[in-house]
Design goal:
Blueprint (H helix, E strand, L loop, with lengths): L1 H22 L3 E5 L12 E10 L3 E2 L6 E6 L4 E5 L1 E2 L5 E7 L4 E8 L10 E9 L3
Length: about 130
C-alpha cells in the first residue's frame, strides 16, 4: 500500500511541475515596423523584434527569427540578434525578388515546446 501511495504521489507531483512549467509557456512578439509599401527586392528591411513573456516581461534569452515565404512556398529565415535593450532583437531582412510574401516571426522561446511562429499580414515587395 505504501508503495502505491509513493508512486501516486510521485506522478501527481510530476504533473504539477509540468503544469507549472507550461503556465509560463507563452510569448508575444511585436515589430518596430512592417516593410514599407515601396520596399523593393534586394533592399534591406531593418526591424526590431520585441519578445515578451505573457505579453509583459521582456525575454532576454529568446532566439527570434523573421521568416518570410514567397508565393511558391519557399522559406527564407533571418536570425535576429540581441540589442542593448532586454527583450529586443534586431533583424536585417532582404526580400530576394519582387512579389507577395507571407511574414512570420518565430519567437525563439527558450523551451522548444513553447516556441511558435507569430504571423503578420502578407507584404508586397516591388521590383527593383
Amino acid at each position: 500500500m505504501r508503495t502505491l501511495f509513493v508512486f501516486v504521489a510521485t506522478v501527481v507531483s510530476g504533473l504539477a511541475l509540468t503544469a507549472a512549467a507550461q503556465a509560463g509557456c507563452m510569448a508575444t512578439v511585436g515589430l518596430s515596423s512592417l516593410p514599407k509599401a515601396n520596399l523593393a527586392a534586394g533592399q534591406p528591411w531593418n526591424v526590431t523584434i520585441r519578445v515578451l513573456q505573457h505579453g509583459r516581461t521582456p525575454m532576454p534569452d529568446a532566439k527570434p527569427e523573421v521568416r518570410i515565404r514567397n508565393s511558391a512556398g519557399k522559406l527564407f529565415v533571418f536570425k535576429a540578434r540581441r540589442t542593448d535593450t532586454i527583450g529586443s532583437y534586431r533583424a536585417r531582412v532582404v526580400f530576394p525578388k519582387a512579389g507577395r510574401y507571407r511574414l512570420g516571426v518565430y519567437d525563439g522561446f527558450p523551451y522548444k515546446d513553447c516556441a511558435r511562429v507569430h504571423t503578420f499580414k502578407s507584404v508586397l515587395i516591388a521590383a527593383v
